[in-house]
Design goal:
With 119 residues, this protein is an all-beta fold. It contains no helices and 10 strands. It is 0% helix and 46% strand. The strands form 2 sheets. The protein has a 6-stranded mixed sheet with strand order 2-10-9-4-5-6, with no helix packed on it.
């Protein structure tokens, strides 16, 4: 099992970034996938979740600004982030839904991708 995140960077407030995650080693198309983030000194939190069929859910803090999508043919999920705020600064990870609480899946965190929102 592997998750490889990419697309992070430094962006000014109000800007946009598009994150990608390529997964391997399991049946991607049958799993609900979640983007998580962890800011310095804070716990990892759920950002956005997408079910195999495409239904999505968002944390209140990003609702209306972030859009999650997936391509089951490429084992890929993306997170389009618009109207970025300084409080969005964090390392972003993808994994299956519930991974932080699952003994199996929490072994497979990727390196994440750093998003820094600053002027």
């Amino acid at each position: 099992v592997q998750f490889v995140e990419s697309g992070g960077g430094l962006v000014e407030p109000g800007g946009s970034l598009r994150l990608s995650c390529v997964a391997s080693g399991f049946t991607f198309h049958t799993h609900t996938i979640t983007w998580y983030r962890q800011a310095p000194g804070k716990e990892r939190e759920r950002v956005a979740t997408i079910r195999p069929g495409g239904d999505s859910h968002y944390a209140d803090s990003v609702k209306g600004r972030f859009t999650i999508s997936r391509d089951n043919t490429k084992n890929t999920t993306t997170l389009q982030m618009d109207s970025l705020k300084s409080e969005d600064t964090a390392v972003y990870y993808c994994n299956v839904a519930g991974a932080p609480y699952n003994e199996y899946w929490r072994k497979y965190w990727g390196q994440g991708t750093q998003v820094t929102v600053s002027s």
